[in-house]
Specification:
two-stranded antiparallel ribbon; 223 residues; Rossmann fold; binds cytidine-5'-diphosphate; alpha/beta; five-stranded parallel beta sheet
Length: 223
């Protein structure tokens, strides 16, 4: 269980491509908090596993990789991830990672290791932390909790627009990937994707980015 600390923590959870990361980054910037996208941690484990040619079913080897993660690889200001001195953030968002990350994120030991790191960071920073299980499992005592969602079709449309110049995935392929990842994340035994009971749920299907930011800021007046 998280020790109550002197720093303030805000959790933002939600399904794939719900906009939670962009919203979290903007929020952190506005209120001068640090920012941690925990999805990048799971993606980093998937990236290192693929790099070492490790099969996704080889739980032990994937746990070993998780154990060797250096937390300073994750920059809490700009949201970049470094490996061997190089920025690898863009590589973590490629389709081969998309299709393995949710399988890796099912392993309870992998989650335990990464959650320990995440709690440590939260204990030492005013922090906006983004993920799937932050309000429910990682920081159940967070000062503010949000759950950002939107329909799968809207999320796929947004991601399609973001990726337009980066790869040639079709809208249909992106929608398929998103639905598949949602289904693994929602149905897994360990820390499934669900809103915390005390989270404020914001459906951004019909909202512009700016309006979503205003919506969140409304709840933070007391900070
Ligand atoms: O950016 P996007 O919403 O597409 O995904 P992400 O936040 O980068 O997360 C990638 C994957 O990591 C998710 O589909 C989950 O399987 C896993 N994840 C998780 O299990 N727990 C978290 N706190 C964050 C991510």
């Amino acid at each position: 269980m998280q020790n109550k600390n002197t720093y303030k923590n805000i959790s933002i959870d939600g399904p794939a491509a719900s906009g939670k990361t962009t919203l979290g980054e903007e929020l952190a910037l506005r209120i001068n908090y640090k920012f941690l996208d925990t999805g990048l941690m799971y993606r980093f484990v998937a990236f290192r596993s693929l790099l070492d040619g490790i099969d996704v079913n080889n739980e032990k080897a994937i746990v070993d990789i998780s154990n060797n993660i250096d937390i300073s690889s994750f920059d809490l200001q700009k949201g970049e991830v470094y490996f061997q001195g190089k920025k690898v953030t863009a590589s973590l968002k490629e389709r081969n990672i998309d299709s393995t990350v949710s399988l890796i994120a099912k392993y309870s030991l992998v989650r335990k290791i990464l959650v320990n790191h995440q709690r440590q960071i939260a204990l030492n920073n005013n922090l906006v932390m983004v993920g799937r299980d932050i309000g429910t499992v990682v920081l159940p005592e967070a000062d503010h909790k949000f759950f950002i969602t939107a329909t799968p079709e809207i999320r796929a449309k947004r991601r399609f627009k973001d990726l337009l110049f980066l790869n040639n995935l079709s809208y249909e392929e992106i929608l398929y990937d998103i639905k598949k990842r949602d289904s693994i994340d929602i149905s897994r035994k360990n820390s499934p994707l669900i809103p915390a009971k005390d989270a404020i749920v914001i459906d951004t299907s019909e909202m512009s980015f700016d309006i979503s930011v205003i919506e969140i800021m409304k709840f933070l007046e007391v900070l």
